[in-house]
Amino acid sequence: MKREMKGGDYMKPLHMVMVILVTVGAVNWGLVGVAQYNFVESLFGAGSTLTNLIYILVGVSGIWLFVQHKTECKSC
After folding, report:
1. What is the pTM of this model?
2. Which end of the chain has fewer beta carbons closer than 10 Å to its terminal beta carbon, N or C?
3. What is the dihedral sign for C-alpha 6, 8, 10, 12?
């Protein structure tokens, strides 16, 4: 049975994609710092359009999640 989306339900899939992108970015930076290994560049090539797009999406996702957190956090 299909459930109707209410309120912010339509944002949940987008939110999950953003969380995944920010996590990938955090892990990638951790690998760069610890092992001098850039996972994103090893997958898509250094300086490629796809690599740059991934970096842009990670950055936008991080900013979006920060702003969303600041507006919705009850204990901040």
Report:
1. 0.79
2. N
3. negative
